[in-house]
Amino acid sequence: MTIIYAVLLLAFIIIVHELGHYTVGRLCGIGIEEFSVGFGPKLLQWKKKGIRYSLRAVILGGYVRFTGEDEDSDDPRAFNNQAVWKRFLTVLAGPAMNFVLAYLVAVAYLAGYGVYTDEVLPRVDQVIASTPAAESGLMPGDVIVAVDGEAITCDQAGYDRLKELMALHTQGEPLGLTVERGRERVDIETGLYRDESGDWKMGVYMTQNRVTMGFFEALRFGGTLMFTLSRELLISIKNLIFHGEGLNQVSGTVGIVSEVSRTVSQGFDMALYWILLISANLGLVNLLPLPALDGGRLVFLIVEGIRRKPVPRDKEGLVHLAGLAVFFMLFIVLTWHDIARIIAG
After folding, report:
1. What pLDDT, in 10s, does the model give residues 91-124?
2. Domains of the chain, start order
3. In the beta sheet, which residues pair with residue 225?
4. Residue 121's closest CA among 157, 164, 175?
5. Which position among 18, 119, 164, 259 bears the catalytic label?
6. Can 18 be counted among the known catalytic residues?
């Protein structure tokens, strides 16, 4: 089910992108032949007001087919017969809608769940399998209120004291914990193990403190959060292109679905986080001036506006076709690496 949720989440983000093209195109009077959710064989199709709507088998994508988009046409509603500014806004609307979605989700995330602070609490967030903590029965949500009979507070000071007391133990000495689990207190003894750095560990991740924001504060900081994520992506792309950094971490659609499905079950906040991250990234990447992407089409429209005449349609079509072929090959390579990475664990 988590895989299905991840696929639907990704499809939703892409549909929002295509709805941007569709809505602005209609408002500009551009003829639309088809609005498709997904690629491949048709599963469902209907027609309304001359526009064909379809649902296809592979829902990880979608497209809007405008009348006369890649050819010369006598139809006055054809895409290429419209003013440059109308076509520019229609192409720009896809990435713009991704940024609008990212901003709205950022506001909802900040208002509903807040942001992490540097403060760590002595509250168990995750228990690592096959560790002393897992064997002792510690559970996510347990709040550690005492260590070896010494009470600790549920704040950064309490977490720091927990680490100090753990450092006094050896692997053979059990650590006595008192935890609050719901409305009851439970006494637990857990062993410790040394990690690679030589520190004593139980085998848990503690909770990092969150601070929620008011609605108007979230409205103000939502754009900041979206801008920060976009800037980090641009830096990553620059380092990847010029320095080859992070090449082994690049993922395709399969890798994204795998990662989303792995974490989305942790809570609705993770679903919001992924919508924010992927939507902002999709909007930004589509604005890159590369063939076959919206950014590449915008470059041709800018050139047309400066020259006051379009680049020959056949030449522009060849550029986008070549770009599409490169992206298709990249998709195959990334999919192969994603599958190999998943199999290898």
Report:
1. 999 999 999 999 999 999 888 887 777 778 888 8
2. 2-112+233-344 (no CATH), 116-211 (2.30.42.10)
3. none
4. 157
5. 18
6. yes
